[in-house]
Amino acid sequence: MTQMIFVNLPVKDLEKTKAFWKACGYSFNPQFSDENTACLVLGDTIFAMLMTEPRFREFTKKEIADAATTTEVLLALSAESRDRVDELADAALAAGGSEAMPAQDHGFMYGRSFQDPDHHIWEVAWMDPKVLAEGQQ
Predict the structure, then answer these.
(1) Which of 6, 95, 115, 130 has the fewest beta carbons closer than 10 A?
(2) Could you tell me the pTM of the whole model?
(3) Cβ of 34: how many Cβ atoms within 10 Å?
C-alpha cells in the first residue's frame, strides 16, 4: 500500500473553510468527511483533515494554537509551473485568503504563500526540473 499523509488542522467554521478550498479548485473525499470533518484532497496520497475545533480537541490534550497570532505549521505544496503557483495563490486570495509573505523568486524556484480563513499558512512553490535534475542551485 502506498503511504499517505493526513494533516489534521482545526477550523472555526467548517462550511466557510470548505467553500474556500472549493473556490481554490480542490475537492473533498466524502468517505472521510462528516458534519465535523472535511477531508481535503490535495493529491493522490495527500489529504488535510479539516476538523471543527471541538472535534480536533478529541485528539489532543494540548491547547489549540491560535493561528491568527501563532504559527503552528507551514504547509508547502509543489506546483508544476510558475503559472500554477500564481493561479492557486490568486484563487486563494480571491476566495477570502490573505497574503502571508511576498512572492519569492530565486530564478530556479518561485513561490507564494497565503493564509486560509483559519490563518493556517500555505506555501505554493515551483522548482525548475532542469536545475533539480542537475543538482544545482
Answers:
(1) 130
(2) 0.89
(3) 11
Pairing of strands 74-78, 121-127: parallel
H or E stretch covering 9: strand 5-11
pLDDT digits (tens, 9 = 90+) for 124-134: 999 998 887 77
The backbone torsions φ and ψ at residue 52, rounded to the nearest 5 degrees and listed phi first, read: -60, 150
In whole angstroms, give the CA distance from residue 101 to residue 11.
Answer: 21
> What are the backbone angles phi and psi of residue 49, rounded to the nearest 5°?
-90, 105
* Residue 36 cell numbers, joined: 465535523
Amino acid, res. 90: D
Q: For the chain, which domains are there?
A: 1-60 (3.10.180.10), 71-137 (3.10.180.10)
